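Q: Convert this sequence to structure tokens.
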Amino acid sequence: MPIIKSAKKALRQNIARRARNAKVKNKVRALIKNLTKLVAAKNAEEIKKTLILAVKAIDKAAKNHIIPKNTASRKKSFLAKLANSGLEQPTKKD
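A:
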């Protein structure tokens, strides 16, 4: 445990920031998980809404340096591909 006053304050700040960052990361994870379930259920309207929310949450997390910029980009790309596969209409083959 810290002894110096400034170290005690730094510890308090670290705990608060870690909790805030974990909350944001959990929200992103939950939205991604929700989107994968919706794709499996083929629910087009909900897929579109959830994709928008997920991308928005990922962008905010990257803007605040909670997740790295390239990680955010990779996650958004994955979600876009996933959503497109869920929104595809089956094509008729002659």
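The chain has a mean pLDDT of 93.
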